[in-house]
Protein backbone atom coordinates (compact mmCIF):
# COMPACT_ATOMS: atom_id res chain seq x y z
CA UNK A 1 0.00 0.00 0.00
CA UNK A 2 1.47 3.35 -1.04
CA UNK A 3 0.08 6.52 0.52
CA UNK A 4 0.78 10.22 -0.08
CA UNK A 5 2.24 11.87 3.02
CA UNK A 6 3.03 15.54 3.67
CA UNK A 7 5.71 15.96 6.33
CA UNK A 8 5.53 19.49 7.77
CA UNK A 9 8.91 20.49 9.22
CA UNK A 10 12.26 19.94 7.49
CA UNK A 11 14.40 19.89 10.64
CA UNK A 12 16.23 16.87 11.99
CA UNK A 13 13.23 14.72 12.93
CA UNK A 14 11.03 15.73 9.98
CA UNK A 15 13.80 14.97 7.48
CA UNK A 16 14.57 11.56 9.00
CA UNK A 17 10.89 10.54 9.22
CA UNK A 18 10.26 11.71 5.64
CA UNK A 19 13.30 9.73 4.48
CA UNK A 20 12.09 6.61 6.32
CA UNK A 21 8.64 6.93 4.73
CA UNK A 22 10.25 7.14 1.26
CA UNK A 23 12.26 4.00 2.09
CA UNK A 24 8.98 2.34 3.07
CA UNK A 25 7.70 3.01 -0.46
CA UNK A 26 5.41 5.97 0.18
CA UNK A 27 5.04 9.16 -1.85
CA UNK A 28 6.35 11.94 0.40
CA UNK A 29 6.53 15.74 0.19
CA UNK A 30 8.71 17.35 2.88
CA UNK A 31 7.52 20.90 3.54
CA UNK A 32 10.06 23.39 4.91
CA UNK A 33 9.94 27.12 5.55
CA UNK A 34 13.53 27.87 4.48
CA UNK A 35 13.96 28.00 0.65
CA UNK A 36 17.75 27.49 0.85
CA UNK A 37 17.47 24.34 2.96
CA UNK A 38 14.64 23.01 0.75
CA UNK A 39 16.83 23.57 -2.35
CA UNK A 40 19.73 21.79 -0.63
CA UNK A 41 17.52 18.75 0.09
CA UNK A 42 16.33 18.59 -3.55
CA UNK A 43 19.67 19.32 -5.22
CA UNK A 44 22.40 17.99 -2.89
CA UNK A 45 20.25 15.38 -1.05
CA UNK A 46 21.60 16.65 2.27
CA UNK A 47 20.31 18.81 5.14
CA UNK A 48 23.66 19.73 6.66
CA UNK A 49 22.45 22.23 9.26
CA UNK A 50 20.41 19.56 11.06
CA UNK A 51 22.01 16.27 9.97
CA UNK A 52 25.61 16.99 8.91
CA UNK A 53 26.60 13.48 7.72
CA UNK A 54 23.28 12.16 6.48
CA UNK A 55 22.66 11.28 2.82
CA UNK A 56 18.98 11.77 1.97
CA UNK A 57 17.22 9.34 -0.40
CA UNK A 58 17.19 11.16 -3.79
CA UNK A 59 13.52 10.17 -4.19
CA UNK A 60 12.56 12.47 -1.27
CA UNK A 61 11.20 15.75 -2.63
CA UNK A 62 11.03 18.90 -0.50
CA UNK A 63 8.91 21.98 -1.13
CA UNK A 64 8.12 25.36 0.39
CA UNK A 65 4.68 25.31 -1.25
CA UNK A 66 1.80 23.92 0.83
CA UNK A 67 -0.24 23.51 -2.37
CA UNK A 68 2.33 20.96 -3.57
CA UNK A 69 2.70 19.30 -0.16
CA UNK A 70 -1.04 18.84 0.39
CA UNK A 71 -2.08 17.80 -3.12
CA UNK A 72 -3.99 14.46 -2.89
CA UNK A 73 -2.56 13.91 0.56
CA UNK A 74 -3.65 10.95 2.75
CA UNK A 75 -1.56 11.76 5.86
CA UNK A 76 -0.26 15.09 7.21
CA UNK A 77 2.61 14.67 9.69
CA UNK A 78 3.46 17.64 11.93
CA UNK A 79 7.15 17.76 12.98
CA UNK A 80 7.63 21.44 13.76
CA UNK A 81 8.30 23.10 17.12
CA UNK A 82 5.25 22.91 19.40
CA UNK A 83 4.85 26.67 19.66
CA UNK A 84 4.43 26.94 15.84
CA UNK A 85 1.87 24.15 15.47
CA UNK A 86 -1.31 26.19 15.87
CA UNK A 87 -0.26 28.78 13.26
CA UNK A 88 0.78 26.14 10.71
CA UNK A 89 -2.37 24.08 11.36
CA UNK A 90 -4.50 27.18 10.70
CA UNK A 91 -2.44 27.86 7.57
CA UNK A 92 -3.11 24.42 6.05
CA UNK A 93 -6.90 24.42 6.53
CA UNK A 94 -7.79 26.61 3.50
CA UNK A 95 -5.34 24.63 1.36
CA UNK A 96 -6.91 21.32 2.42
CA UNK A 97 -10.36 22.73 1.62
CA UNK A 98 -9.20 23.95 -1.83
CA UNK A 99 -7.54 20.57 -2.52
CA UNK A 100 -10.63 18.67 -1.25
CA UNK A 101 -8.49 16.40 0.95
CA UNK A 102 -9.39 14.95 4.37
CA UNK A 103 -6.15 13.42 5.67
CA UNK A 104 -5.27 11.64 8.89
CA UNK A 105 -3.37 14.17 11.01
CA UNK A 106 -0.30 12.83 12.81
CA UNK A 107 2.00 14.67 15.22
CA UNK A 108 5.57 13.68 16.09
CA UNK A 109 6.29 16.92 17.98
CA UNK A 110 6.62 16.94 21.77
CA UNK A 111 5.55 19.78 24.02
CA UNK A 112 2.78 21.84 25.62
CA UNK A 113 1.53 25.10 24.11
CA UNK A 114 2.55 28.12 26.15
CA UNK A 115 -0.32 30.23 27.48
CA UNK A 116 -3.07 27.64 26.86
CA UNK A 117 -1.03 24.71 28.35
CA UNK A 118 -2.68 22.49 25.72
CA UNK A 119 -1.34 19.23 24.36
CA UNK A 120 -0.52 19.17 20.63
CA UNK A 121 -3.49 16.96 19.71
CA UNK A 122 -5.76 19.44 21.51
CA UNK A 123 -4.25 22.33 19.53
CA UNK A 124 -4.75 20.37 16.28
CA UNK A 125 -8.33 19.50 17.24
CA UNK A 126 -9.09 23.19 17.73
CA UNK A 127 -7.21 24.49 14.69
CA UNK A 128 -8.35 21.93 12.08
CA UNK A 129 -12.14 21.48 11.85
CA UNK A 130 -13.37 17.88 12.16
CA UNK A 131 -14.80 18.03 8.62
CA UNK A 132 -11.27 18.56 7.26
CA UNK A 133 -9.48 15.69 9.01
CA UNK A 134 -9.77 11.95 9.38
CA UNK A 135 -8.63 11.44 12.97
CA UNK A 136 -5.53 12.46 14.93
CA UNK A 137 -2.65 10.14 15.84
CA UNK A 138 0.25 10.97 18.19
CA UNK A 139 3.69 9.42 17.53
CA UNK A 140 6.11 9.29 20.42
CA UNK A 141 8.90 7.22 21.94
CA UNK A 142 12.66 7.04 22.47
CA UNK A 143 13.83 8.07 19.02
CA UNK A 144 16.67 10.45 18.30
CA UNK A 145 16.88 11.38 14.63
CA UNK A 146 20.65 10.77 14.69
CA UNK A 147 20.12 7.10 15.71
CA UNK A 148 17.28 6.48 13.23
CA UNK A 149 19.62 7.91 10.57
CA UNK A 150 21.93 4.97 11.40
CA UNK A 151 18.98 2.56 11.16
CA UNK A 152 19.32 1.79 14.87
CA UNK A 153 16.45 -0.36 16.13
CA UNK A 154 13.82 2.11 17.34
CA UNK A 155 10.39 1.66 18.96
CA UNK A 156 7.56 4.18 19.17
CA UNK A 157 3.93 4.41 20.23
CA UNK A 158 1.11 5.49 17.92
CA UNK A 159 -1.61 6.86 20.21
CA UNK A 160 -5.14 7.60 19.14
CA UNK A 161 -8.67 7.35 20.46
CA UNK A 162 -9.35 5.65 17.09
CA UNK A 163 -7.52 2.29 17.13
CA UNK A 164 -8.09 1.72 13.38
CA UNK A 165 -6.26 4.96 12.52
CA UNK A 166 -3.44 4.16 14.98
CA UNK A 167 -3.04 0.72 13.37
CA UNK A 168 -2.99 2.26 9.89
CA UNK A 169 -0.21 4.67 10.90
CA UNK A 170 1.63 1.75 12.58
CA UNK A 171 1.57 -0.12 9.25
CA UNK A 172 2.78 2.91 7.25
CA UNK A 173 5.83 3.54 9.46
CA UNK A 174 6.96 0.02 10.45
CA UNK A 175 9.99 -1.62 8.86
CA UNK A 176 12.91 -3.86 9.90
CA UNK A 177 14.41 -1.26 12.27
CA UNK A 178 11.39 0.90 13.13
CA UNK A 179 8.66 -0.76 15.21
CA UNK A 180 5.43 0.87 16.42
CA UNK A 181 3.00 -0.15 19.14
CA UNK A 182 -0.48 1.33 19.58
CA UNK A 183 -1.91 2.97 22.70
CA UNK A 184 -5.40 4.47 23.21
CA UNK A 185 -4.12 6.76 26.02
CA UNK A 186 -3.45 9.96 24.05
CA UNK A 187 -3.24 12.09 27.21
CA UNK A 188 -0.63 9.84 28.82
CA UNK A 189 1.49 9.57 25.68
CA UNK A 190 1.48 13.34 25.07
CA UNK A 191 2.12 14.28 28.70
CA UNK A 192 5.07 11.85 28.94
CA UNK A 193 6.49 13.16 25.65
CA UNK A 194 6.23 16.80 26.67
CA UNK A 195 7.38 16.58 30.28
CA UNK A 196 10.40 14.30 29.79
CA UNK A 197 12.07 17.21 27.95
CA UNK A 198 11.96 19.27 31.16
CA UNK A 199 13.57 16.46 33.18
CA UNK A 200 16.18 15.99 30.41
CA UNK A 201 17.20 19.64 30.88
CA UNK A 202 17.74 18.82 34.57
CA UNK A 203 19.70 15.64 33.79
CA UNK A 204 21.99 17.59 31.45
CA UNK A 205 22.50 20.26 34.12
CA UNK A 206 23.55 17.61 36.66
CA UNK A 207 26.09 16.30 34.14
CA UNK A 208 27.41 19.80 33.50
CA UNK A 209 27.84 20.30 37.24
CA UNK A 210 29.79 17.03 37.56
CA UNK A 211 27.23 14.91 39.45
CA UNK A 212 27.46 11.12 39.07
CA UNK A 213 25.15 8.28 38.06
CA UNK A 214 23.26 8.03 41.39
CA UNK A 215 22.17 11.63 41.13
CA UNK A 216 21.06 11.32 37.50
CA UNK A 217 19.08 8.14 38.29
CA UNK A 218 17.48 9.92 41.25
CA UNK A 219 16.45 12.86 39.06
CA UNK A 220 14.99 10.71 36.31
CA UNK A 221 13.12 8.41 38.71
CA UNK A 222 11.66 11.20 40.82
CA UNK A 223 11.09 13.16 37.60
CA UNK A 224 9.00 10.28 36.28
CA UNK A 225 7.04 10.31 39.56
CA UNK A 226 6.03 13.92 39.03
CA UNK A 227 5.39 13.47 35.29
CA UNK A 228 2.98 10.66 36.21
CA UNK A 229 1.38 12.78 38.96
CA UNK A 230 0.52 15.64 36.58
CA UNK A 231 -0.37 13.21 33.77
CA UNK A 232 -2.83 11.31 35.97
CA UNK A 233 -4.34 14.62 37.15
CA UNK A 234 -4.94 15.42 33.45
CA UNK A 235 -6.67 12.07 32.87
CA UNK A 236 -3.79 9.78 31.79
CA UNK A 237 -3.56 6.08 32.59
CA UNK A 238 -0.57 5.70 34.98
CA UNK A 239 0.59 2.54 33.14
CA UNK A 240 1.43 4.61 30.05
CA UNK A 241 4.29 6.24 31.98
CA UNK A 242 6.13 2.92 32.27
CA UNK A 243 5.91 2.58 28.47
CA UNK A 244 7.87 3.89 25.49
CA UNK A 245 6.54 7.44 25.63
CA UNK A 246 7.17 7.61 29.39
CA UNK A 247 10.20 5.95 30.96
CA UNK A 248 11.51 4.90 27.52
CA UNK A 249 11.76 8.45 26.20
CA UNK A 250 12.94 9.74 29.57
CA UNK A 251 15.89 7.30 29.46
CA UNK A 252 16.96 8.28 25.96
CA UNK A 253 16.51 12.02 26.39
CA UNK A 254 17.91 12.10 29.92
CA UNK A 255 21.13 10.28 29.00
CA UNK A 256 21.98 11.05 25.38
CA UNK A 257 24.34 13.62 23.91
CA UNK A 258 21.99 13.69 20.89
CA UNK A 259 19.27 15.28 23.02
CA UNK A 260 18.97 19.02 22.51
CA UNK A 261 17.33 19.31 25.92
CA UNK A 262 20.11 17.37 27.64
CA UNK A 263 22.77 19.41 25.81
CA UNK A 264 21.08 22.69 26.74
CA UNK A 265 20.94 21.57 30.40
CA UNK A 266 24.57 20.45 30.28
CA UNK A 267 25.63 23.90 29.04
CA UNK A 268 23.58 25.58 31.79
CA UNK A 269 25.25 23.32 34.34
CA UNK A 270 28.62 24.44 33.04
CA UNK A 271 27.61 28.04 33.72
CA UNK A 272 26.43 29.29 30.31
CA UNK A 273 23.50 31.72 30.08
CA UNK A 274 20.17 30.40 28.76
CA UNK A 275 19.96 32.99 25.97
CA UNK A 276 23.42 32.00 24.68
CA UNK A 277 22.65 28.28 24.95
CA UNK A 278 19.46 28.66 22.88
CA UNK A 279 21.13 30.94 20.34
CA UNK A 280 23.97 28.43 19.83
CA UNK A 281 21.79 25.32 19.58
CA UNK A 282 20.30 26.17 16.15
CA UNK A 283 17.51 23.65 16.83
CA UNK A 284 14.44 23.63 19.02
CA UNK A 285 14.87 22.97 22.78
CA UNK A 286 11.24 22.10 23.58
CA UNK A 287 11.73 21.70 27.34
CA UNK A 288 12.21 25.42 27.91
CA UNK A 289 8.73 26.53 26.79
CA UNK A 290 7.12 23.34 28.11
CA UNK A 291 8.67 23.86 31.56
CA UNK A 292 6.75 27.14 31.93
CA UNK A 293 3.51 25.54 30.73
CA UNK A 294 4.00 22.53 33.06
CA UNK A 295 4.87 24.77 36.04
CA UNK A 296 1.71 26.86 35.52
CA UNK A 297 -0.44 23.79 34.92
CA UNK A 298 0.85 22.13 38.11
CA UNK A 299 0.00 25.27 40.08
CA UNK A 300 -3.50 25.46 38.56
CA UNK A 301 -4.16 21.79 39.35
CA UNK A 302 -2.39 21.83 42.77
CA UNK A 303 -0.01 19.05 41.69
CA UNK A 304 3.32 18.89 43.52
CA UNK A 305 6.18 19.03 40.96
CA UNK A 306 9.28 20.08 42.92
CA UNK A 307 11.83 19.21 40.20
CA UNK A 308 9.89 21.03 37.48
CA UNK A 309 9.57 24.00 39.86
CA UNK A 310 13.34 23.99 40.47
CA UNK A 311 14.05 23.89 36.72
CA UNK A 312 11.50 26.67 36.16
CA UNK A 313 13.28 28.78 38.80
CA UNK A 314 16.60 28.29 37.00
CA UNK A 315 15.19 29.01 33.51
CA UNK A 316 12.78 31.83 34.29
CA UNK A 317 13.79 33.33 37.66
CA UNK A 318 17.56 33.24 37.11
CA UNK A 319 17.99 31.10 40.26
CA UNK A 320 21.23 29.28 40.96
CA UNK A 321 21.11 25.54 40.11
CA UNK A 322 23.03 24.41 43.21
CA UNK A 323 20.74 26.45 45.48
CA UNK A 324 17.72 24.76 43.87
CA UNK A 325 19.31 21.32 44.34
CA UNK A 326 20.03 22.09 48.01
CA UNK A 327 16.42 23.16 48.49
CA UNK A 328 15.14 19.93 46.89
CA UNK A 329 17.35 17.85 49.19
CA UNK A 330 16.37 19.69 52.39
CA UNK A 331 12.60 19.26 51.96
CA UNK A 332 10.93 17.21 54.69
CA UNK A 333 11.01 13.43 54.22
CA UNK A 334 8.05 11.77 52.51
CA UNK A 335 6.89 8.32 51.35
CA UNK A 336 8.21 7.25 47.94
CA UNK A 337 4.76 6.28 46.69
CA UNK A 338 1.43 7.59 47.93
CA UNK A 339 -0.46 4.29 47.78
CA UNK A 340 -3.75 6.06 48.50
CA UNK A 341 -3.43 7.87 45.18
CA UNK A 342 -2.53 4.82 43.05
N1 LIG B 1 15.15 15.60 16.68
C1 LIG B 1 14.69 14.47 17.21
O1 LIG B 1 15.45 13.48 17.31
C2 LIG B 1 13.29 14.36 17.66
C3 LIG B 1 12.47 15.46 17.73
N2 LIG B 1 11.17 15.31 18.16
C4 LIG B 1 10.27 16.45 18.19
O2 LIG B 1 10.00 16.89 16.85
C5 LIG B 1 9.77 18.31 16.85
C6 LIG B 1 10.74 18.94 15.85
O3 LIG B 1 12.03 18.68 16.34
P1 LIG B 1 13.33 18.76 15.45
O4 LIG B 1 13.10 18.24 14.09
O5 LIG B 1 14.39 18.17 16.28
O6 LIG B 1 13.52 20.33 15.40
P2 LIG B 1 14.54 21.17 14.52
O7 LIG B 1 14.87 22.37 15.27
O8 LIG B 1 15.62 20.26 14.04
O9 LIG B 1 13.67 21.54 13.25
C7 LIG B 1 12.48 22.27 13.35
C8 LIG B 1 12.00 22.60 11.94
O10 LIG B 1 10.78 23.32 12.04
C9 LIG B 1 10.88 24.47 11.22
N3 LIG B 1 10.01 25.51 11.73
C10 LIG B 1 10.17 26.24 12.85
N4 LIG B 1 9.14 27.12 12.96
C11 LIG B 1 8.35 26.91 11.88
C12 LIG B 1 7.16 27.51 11.41
N5 LIG B 1 6.56 28.49 12.06
N6 LIG B 1 6.64 27.07 10.26
C13 LIG B 1 7.22 26.07 9.58
N7 LIG B 1 8.35 25.45 9.96
C14 LIG B 1 8.89 25.87 11.11
C15 LIG B 1 12.35 24.86 11.25
O11 LIG B 1 12.67 25.66 10.13
C16 LIG B 1 13.01 23.49 11.20
O12 LIG B 1 13.09 23.05 9.87
C17 LIG B 1 10.00 18.79 18.28
O13 LIG B 1 8.77 18.92 18.91
C18 LIG B 1 10.81 17.67 18.93
O14 LIG B 1 10.55 17.56 20.32
C19 LIG B 1 10.66 14.10 18.51
C20 LIG B 1 11.44 12.98 18.47
C21 LIG B 1 12.80 13.03 18.03
O1 LIG C 1 12.31 13.38 21.87
C1 LIG C 1 13.44 13.12 21.53
C2 LIG C 1 13.97 11.74 21.50
O2 LIG C 1 12.96 10.79 21.72
C3 LIG C 1 14.35 14.23 21.15
O3 LIG C 1 14.73 14.90 22.28
P1 LIG C 1 15.51 16.31 22.15
O4 LIG C 1 14.49 17.27 21.56
O5 LIG C 1 15.93 16.64 23.51
O6 LIG C 1 16.64 16.09 21.20
TrEMBL record:
Residues 4-162 form the Glycerol-3-phosphate dehydrogenase NAD-dependent N-terminal domain. It holds the Pfam family NAD_Gly3P_dh_N. Sn-glycerol 3-phosphate binds at residues 110, 141, 143, 196, 249, 259-261. It is found in: Cytoplasm. Residues 185-323 form the Glycerol-3-phosphate dehydrogenase NAD-dependent C-terminal domain. Substrate binds at residues 110, 260-261. InterPro entries: 6-PGluconate_DH-like_C_sf, 6PGD_dom2, G3P_DH_NAD-dep, G3P_DH_NAD-dep_C, G3P_DH_NAD-dep_N, NAD(P)-bd_dom_sf. Pathway: Membrane lipid metabolism; glycerophospholipid metabolism. The active site is at 196 (proton acceptor). GO terms for molecular function: glycerol-3-phosphate dehydrogenase [NAD(P)+] activity; NAD binding. It catalyses: sn-glycerol 3-phosphate + NAD(+) = dihydroxyacetone phosphate + NADH + H(+); sn-glycerol 3-phosphate + NADP(+) = dihydroxyacetone phosphate + NADPH + H(+). NADPH binds at residues 12-13, 50, 110, 145, 260, 284, 286. Catalyzes the reduction of the glycolytic intermediate dihydroxyacetone phosphate (DHAP) to sn-glycerol 3-phosphate (G3P), the key precursor for phospholipid synthesis. Belongs to the NAD-dependent glycerol-3-phosphate dehydrogenase family. PANTHER family: GLYCEROL-3-PHOSPHATE DEHYDROGENASE, GLYCEROL-3-PHOSPHATE DEHYDROGENASE [NAD(+)] 2, CHLOROPLASTIC. This is Glycerol-3-phosphate dehydrogenase [NAD(P)+]. It comes from Latilactobacillus curvatus. The gene is gpsA.
Amino acid sequence: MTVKIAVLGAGSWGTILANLLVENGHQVELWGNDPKKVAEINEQHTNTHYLPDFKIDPQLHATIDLNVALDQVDVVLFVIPTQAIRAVAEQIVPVMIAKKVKPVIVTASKGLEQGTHKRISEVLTEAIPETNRNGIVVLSGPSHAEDVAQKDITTLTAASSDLIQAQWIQEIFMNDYFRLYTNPDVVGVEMGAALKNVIALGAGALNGLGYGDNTKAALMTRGLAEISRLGVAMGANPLTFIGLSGVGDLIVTGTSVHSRNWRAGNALGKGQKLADVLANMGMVVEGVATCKAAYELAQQRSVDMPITRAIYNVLYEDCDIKTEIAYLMRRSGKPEIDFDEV
